[in-house]
Design goal:
Helix content: 25-40%
CATH architecture of the largest domain: 3-Layer(bba) Sandwich
CATH superfamily of the largest domain: FAD/NAD(P)-binding domain
CATH class of the largest domain: Alpha Beta
Number of strands: 18
GO molecular function: glycerol-3-phosphate dehydrogenase (quinone) activity
Strand content: 15-25%
Number of domains: 3
Protein name: Glycerol-3-phosphate dehydrogenase/oxidase
Family: Belongs to the FAD-dependent glycerol-3-phosphate dehydrogenase family.
Radius of gyration: 23 Å
InterPro entries: DAO_C (IPR031656), DAO_C_sf (IPR038299), FAD-dep_OxRdtase (IPR006076), FAD/NAD-bd_sf (IPR036188), G3P_DH_FAD-dep (IPR000447)
Cofactor: FAD
């Protein structure tokens, strides 16, 4: 993933692709992987950094969706459980089996949830991760010491997947490259190219790093821009109705002492009808989420005060030690690109189906919205199948269902953050063996090292301090104050690697510090 030469090649205006994808989140990257793995020429253009938006701001779950089963959406649960198993099988270095505990405080709850979650297991079939079982109160206390003990009558354990979302996104970009695809960050699409018959045949774009404008020709153009799909569809033709309805989900990150164990907590029903999770993640705990409908989308949404208060209040009802604002290490918000309902605006966002929708315009522009991380591969397969017909491409079968992703490595429950690199860990170690300075920590309380920054810029197309601290290593999402302290060192390393001066480094630190304020409360 060398950006400079690739940008020059694509920006020459002579590069032709079979499938061009706009959007570098989970959906767009999944499409790029699928298309490249089938042998098609594929280009992906992302206006910011890969997974800058919603795809780096999830609850870190690979799951079928227990609450969707409760709502009766069995088909979607089956699809998601099947894809959950495939993600675990194809990227074991990123997707882990996680035990989820539901504490029971009423006599009927243990039997009720055991039966429901047994159905959840059966729907997963051979791709299941583990069996749901009732647990005694003493066992629950052992698994989650931080759970409120007063009135605890036992509980139920079930299994779902846990992962690092933006690391998965980078892995998909690397996998696309491994199969001959081309993914570029910091390239904004400004318009669509059309032939004499009005069919979309490419895009007009600008490289935001150097201002170079260029055109890329393509047999098919796919709009996978999440909450921004309406903007791209508007480049094609005027729309009467919006196709996406943004819904904000907020998460708080606190110290792992609030759970105290390695299992996750699932609160089955909060006062707004949603479930709430407490998920161990990189030696911290992620608490969330909310579901707040918004009218406008942005690249950097910020949590609302009432969302923060809601999570603290609801989590505090189930935890022995109630977290307060001073305990929050980081708060992050993401916008779900929900497919807008067609039966009026009265529907609550938590009731809008998370199933994806695909739109094919008269011009041939293909747009996808909705869905979730867990089903990214299946969504990509469906889009590429449609693109084949639109572009008149030779028909080739999808191969991603059983395809190992970049860095594939079967690993034990190792400590240390860098398990997410999989087989690339050996190359990181080589960097450190070549120069002992590369072993130096970016912060005394975290295991992020100079080698991780070098790898991010040399092999993962990181261009800014934010790229490194938010999405290549997850410092901003884990501890915003610590990330601010790391920023000057990271900026200095980046400046040297990218051939920038000290003024650029100082500006990078200032920009990052301003951004990080949104992650603090």
């Amino acid at each position: 993933m060398k950006r400079e030469g690739l940008a020059e090649k694509i920006g020459s205006g002579k590069y032709k692709s079979d499938i061009l994808v706009i959007g570098g989140g989970a959906t767009g990257l999944g499409i790029a992987v699928d298309a490249a793995a089938r042998g098609y020429r594929v280009v992906l253009l992302e206006q910011d950094d890969f997974s800058k938006g919603t795809s780096s701001r999830s609850t870190k779950l690979v799951h079928g969706g227990v609450r969707y089963l409760a709502q009766g959406d069995v088909r979607m649960v089956i699809e998601a459980l099947r894809e959950r198993g495939r993600m675990r099988r194809n990227a074991p270095h990123l997707v882990r089996d996680m035990r989820f505990i539901i504490g029971n405080y009423k006599w009927w709850e243990r039997s009720f949830y055991t039966v429901g979650l047994t159905c959840y297991d059966l729907l997963a079939g051979k791709l299941g991760l583990g069996r749901s079982l009732p647990l005694s109160s003493s066992r629950i206390k052992k698994e989650i010491p931080g759970l409120k003990q007063d009135g605890l009558m036992g509980g139920v354990v079930y299994h779902d997947g846990q992962f690092d979302d933006s690391r998965m996104a980078i892995t998909l970009a690397q996998t696309a490259f491994d199969h001959g695809g081309a993914c570029l960050n910091y390239v904004r699409v400004n318009g669509l190219e059309k032939d004499s018959s009005g069919r979309v045949c490419g895009v007009r774009a600008v490289d935001l790093l150097d201002g170079h404008e260029f055109t890329v020709n393509s047999r098919v153009v796919v709009n996978a821009t999440g909450v921004f799909i309406d903007d791209v569809m508007g480049m094609d033709s005027r729309q009467a109705n919006k196709k996406v309805r943004p819904s904000q989900g907020v998460h708080l990150v606190v110290d792992r002492k609030f759970l105290g164990g390695d299992s996750a907590l699932m609160i089955p029903k909060t006062r707004d009808g949603r479930v709430l999770f407490g998920v161990p993640w990189h030696d911290k705990v992620v608490l969330g989420t909310t579901d707040t409908p918004l009218n406008e989308a942005s690249l950097e949404p910020c949590a609302l005060e009432e969302e923060v208060d809601f999570i603290l209040d609801q989590a505090g009802q189930y935890l022995a030690k109630q977290p307060t604002r001073s305990d929050v290490l980081s708060v992050f918000a993401g916008l779900r690109p929900l497919a807008a309902p067609t039966n009026g605006d009265g529907q609550k966002t938590k009731e809008i189906s998370r199933s994806h929708k695909i739109y094919q315009a008269d011009s041939g522009l293909l747009t996808i919205t909705g869905g979730k991380w867990t089903t990214y591969r299946e969504m990509a397969e469906e889009v590429v199948d449609r693109a084949i017909g639109i572009g008149g491409l030779s028909r080739r079968k999808c191969v991603t269902a059983n395809m190992k992703l970049h860095g594939y490595a079967v690993q034990g429950p190792e400590s240390g953050w860098d398990y997410v690199y999989g087989s690339d860990r050996e190359k990181l170690r080589q960097l450190e063996q070549n120069d002992a300075a590369n072993k130096e920590l970016l912060h005394p309380e975290y295991s992020f090292r100079v080698s991780h920054v070098l790898w991010a810029v040399r092999e993962e197309m990181a261009q800014t301090v934010e790229d490194v601290l938010a999405r290549r290593v997850r410092a901003l999402f884990l501890d915003a104050r610590a990330a601010i302290e790391m920023a000057p060192r990271v900026a200095s390393i980046l400046a040297k690697e990218l051939g920038k001066n000290n003024e650029w480094a100082r500006e990078q630190v200032a920009v990052f510090n301003q951004l990080a304020k949104c992650y603090l409360i």
